[in-house]
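Troubleshooting log. The previous structure file for this entry was overwritten by mistake, so regenerating from the original sequence record. Sequence copied from the archived sheet and checked twice against the printout by T.R.
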Amino acid sequence: MLSLTLREVSLALREGRISPTELCRKCLNRIKKTQHLNAYITVTEELALKQAQEAETRLLQGAPKGPLDGIPFAVKDNFCTENIKTTCASKMLKDYAPPYNATVVQKLLDQGAVLMGKTNMDEFAMGSGSTDGAFGPVRNPWSYAASYTEKTGAVPESDWVVCGGSSGGSAAAVASLTSYLALGSDTGGSTRNPAALCGVVALKPTYGLLSRHGLIPLVNSMDVPGIMARSASDAAIVLGILQGLDMRDSTTVAAPSSPTELPEHFDVKNICVGIPKEYHAPGLSEETLMQWSRVTDMFERAGARVEQVSLPHTQHSIVCYRVLCHAEVASNMARFDGLEYGLRSKVDSSTEAMYASTRHEGFNDVVRGRILSGNYFMLKQNYQHYFVKAQKVRRLIADDFKHVFSSGVDVLLTPTTLSDATRYSDFTQEDNQTRSTQEDVFTQPVNMAGLPAVSVPTALSRRGLPIGLQLIGPALQDKKLLSVAQWIEQRVGFPSIRDSSESRNETGVTKREQTSAV
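Regenerated output below.
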């Protein structure tokens, strides 16, 4: 039952094959069994069982709230949840419990979804490995899968691989079968990167399509709530519920009127797939390149038009992002001063000393480093030279995408990450900034342009770890993008992690198609 997609488990609940309370208990047991992954910061066991009981009552009365009624979900710990700790994986907010829910969380609860807990992440979402939070690193569930341990002879306890970031806990929660969907945030690839490394689907929606109200900000002009799920179809169901205007977020836009359901048989003959030549980046692994070529060939054989395209300003994207990201971080982090909420240092010799001490104790080196460089970029003498110039380059990057999509290209196909997941021991050899620069190379330009993108798992590498590819579309074409993603999904035969305690009859999927997880 835990291996089913959201759509399948929703049907099972309605048909009475399992009750919401039973399902909730299964997920809670699975969370305990996979505690070593460190995917959750807070597990909301009592609340989850209460919500599941309420869902059960509604289903017995034949009045479910919608397709998510009784479905377990998880939320990245930078989305506000009423009276539930929201820490951003930082000492600064370790005991902070907001008085309200983020809009996207509230919309899921309004549909009867069951909150399992808050997931681990990089501190304040600054990182690409989910290794830099105050609550320790997240382990990739595939580190314990037979495909990895048997092919590499790896010992999971010492050779475990990272799950990407900064929404690594959410990706691990979906991949390890403890929730059917999870919310992440995506500023430069923070949902797509971990989704690719954990073998799940992640949608980074068009900027403004989902409300940011209640998402603790990193970079306001690029942050979007992201959706992680087991399939493109599941992501489409969740998108249909979460999208639309929100009075509390002035950047939201009205949702386009399109059906929630994805077409079962999507005809790719009428679409043009663009392959950006600049995405043949240094460090791109041979296996990722092979998968990129394989899926490109699939499109060609199915009758789609495939064209090489150019996004010339992509090469400047990372430098540009660094300036804009750090500048907005410096501004956003100013609110954490020890006065109103969050950590307050015991140093009280003066207000200035208390400020300085609070921020030193509350933030890790990565956050402090970004605040320092951000303030440097915003100094009067540097503002034009750094910040304004970066904004101009950002416009050129957005124009590159606009030009390609106006030339008749419907979607762009690119890698999501340079390679499969790295061992934690190797990953931590480099500093956070260097890692983020390398890992965000394919995902980050999309955030600059505010466009939708989806990462789809396509195959396992020679090491038995997931490899994902990314689809990018024009603004507000999220549903079409997911339809293309589903088309890929139906043809690549990606093997998902399976709960080894479940029988074949429960899941309806043969062992050959799945990879057992410890």
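The longest helix spans residues 384-406. Archived copy saved in two places this time.
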